[in-house]
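During the second year of the project, the team shifted from modelling isolated chains to modelling whole assemblies. The rationale, set out in the original proposal, was that interfaces cannot be judged from single-chain predictions alone. As a representative example for this report, we include one of the complexes processed in the last quarter. Its constituent sequences, exactly as entered into the pipeline, are reproduced here:
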Amino acid sequence: MNVSILTIGEEILIGQVIDTNSAWMGRTLNMHGARVVGIHSVGDDHDAIQRGLSLALAEAEVVLLTGGLGPTKDDITKKALAEFFGAPTIFHQPTYERIVRIFQRLGRPTSEAHWLQAFLPANALLLPNKMGTAPGMWFDWRGKIIVSMPGVPYEMQYLMEREVLPRLHQRYPGRPIAHRTLLTAGEGESTIATHIAAFEAALPPHIRLAYLPNLGQVRLRLSGSDDDAEALNALLDQKKEELRALIPELVYGYDDDQLEAALGRTLKARGLTIGTAESCTGGYVAHRITAIAGASDYFLGSIVAYDNAVKRQLLGVKAETLEQHGAVSRETVLEMVEGARRALGVDVALAISGIAGPGGGTPEKPVGTIWMAASDARRYAARKLQAGNDRLKNIEYAGVHALNFTRLFLTDML
Amino acid sequence: MNVSILTIGEEILIGQVIDTNSAWMGRTLNMHGARVVGIHSVGDDHDAIQRGLSLALAEAEVVLLTGGLGPTKDDITKKALAEFFGAPTIFHQPTYERIVRIFQRLGRPTSEAHWLQAFLPANALLLPNKMGTAPGMWFDWRGKIIVSMPGVPYEMQYLMEREVLPRLHQRYPGRPIAHRTLLTAGEGESTIATHIAAFEAALPPHIRLAYLPNLGQVRLRLSGSDDDAEALNALLDQKKEELRALIPELVYGYDDDQLEAALGRTLKARGLTIGTAESCTGGYVAHRITAIAGASDYFLGSIVAYDNAVKRQLLGVKAETLEQHGAVSRETVLEMVEGARRALGVDVALAISGIAGPGGGTPEKPVGTIWMAASDARRYAARKLQAGNDRLKNIEYAGVHALNFTRLFLTDML
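Output from the structure prediction step:
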């Protein structure tokens, strides 16, 4: 199945927004065995949308549109679509009622714009959108499929996963494709490549391995295609296990798992509670842990000790330690982690202190220097990390490493 | 001048790389008064490149290509270009000598791939690329301009700034375009639309208004085009101020500003320190505040009190309050905010407690119920918010509203 992606919106053309939707769609479609042959962005005016539709339809049998739907006036996609298909727009009562209900629940008034939002092309099959007010629209037109979705990323992703991909699969069954993704943390792409070179070289030709690196984590994706789906799945399961056995301490999960979810499962299985003491990460690690549903089963709280006074008063870090070794030191993170365990009343604590930048670096402790420690009642561990120069990346990198460090600490792999 | 951007590379289509080049080019061209009418990505095969060129040339007088040049690609782009123009490829001695010199300096050997890299379409005007081995190529063809550049971002940017933009300016002196973006928080797209309907209806035809919504925030972009740049800028400044005056409490900044940076500026200007007490947001608000460089000037720390025991012990919330009113209540957030101010030693504190979901909801307090409070030595304020059903969205939505709530509290707009 060939797919063309069409993004509608002036904000992409003037570079105010980076088109991450198309990348997500490309990645997802690719995993489902579809071939994306083109990605196009056009402005949100009538002619541009019609031009975009024509060129997308000329190259593919499926066209996926995002953007240009929503309650405000800069929304002309629906009209352009209706005209393109030679269909009228008609008022869709259930869509209007859903919008009214959503706004009633939020205690907000609806306006004429919402009423207009319920006018939809008559030939559209509506795809329910639980994440927002604008439904997706599916058009079956001259043997081709055109789908229009809102541009808000989580709305588009919801519609793709729940409505669009299952329908496309039914329509274009294709040759079975399957994937297994191993999620690793703690080492870079090239180090992993060295460890698994022999495994990679020995893979059969219909199984491919892709490295998908991202800031402290590397996803290893095994993909295969075979007419015999059962044999393909059995082989992928075997290769996945072989690969895991080569780098057991790096693999924290599979497919859509998350490092913080893996950590949470380990804590829950052992009946342990956790808390953090954070300086440079400023609450980022606590945020990642609590992003997982059910985190309240094991996460009790955090002390974000950005200022040294807070490190002293709430975590009991000694003034001498801060003076002699500095806030970014093994000595300080060890006192922070003990202080957090005590103050929060948790079984296991994690502490992080570093220089996120851009200011604060010195020749001995440049920007990107990060210390972390973990402890429980029996033992502790500390580690130093050298990140880069970008503040936000350093925070994220430190967070990923801290989560992984704690996971390894708990599983006695440090 | 109308421009079409064409990106060549399979890695964009399969979503392995996000197309940031096109966003940079769009922004830069827009600031130079050029109008980007389309952005297209195609694969790096001969047919796809020719198809991409045709559709880009059909919509614009200038086509800017990136990608598909360099020693590891099999040079398909150059061959496809030469064929498209009906020109031969010829060996370009100076380009080859430059590549050899670069590699000699790096102490690395050259290979056949580098020799092939020096074969270029005969009708190309070469644009020297000091940042890499592949030169840019400028084609003057049937009254249109086609420029091919490498896909490495800093090489493309170097060529754009040093070679391409100056030449395009000479060729198309052009009509000035300008933008003003107002950043708002606290209300949705449709509510804002209602407030500014008369303003929007009265805009002159050469000024357009676009709504760019994103979870609790809406950017309002005024765009215009006029031969008289001075008059255009004056009019946009006037309209921007008119628009701000209609919704003064919603506008927190302009253009690339951030809500947390606006809050930081307010704190810094008043010489105040801040800290947070977070339950459902789990450190997310502290993370957003500390993502801003220089946050240590005003942010001292946070207590993430996920568990009620932490709320009691570190924030001094009374057991009776939790029992009688629950953790998600006006009474609890008011005790949390006072406790945070005391424990962290800050001038201003913010407290948040809510039900992020998916569990924990009741008929009286459904998932998405969020209470927040702010206080300083003189006064306090509390507010209830009803978010949706998605845990991560609820955390982000609560965070954005809490930052905005604190901004309004500090500027006496509550």
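The longest strand of chain B covers residues 177-185. Chain B has a mean pLDDT of 92.
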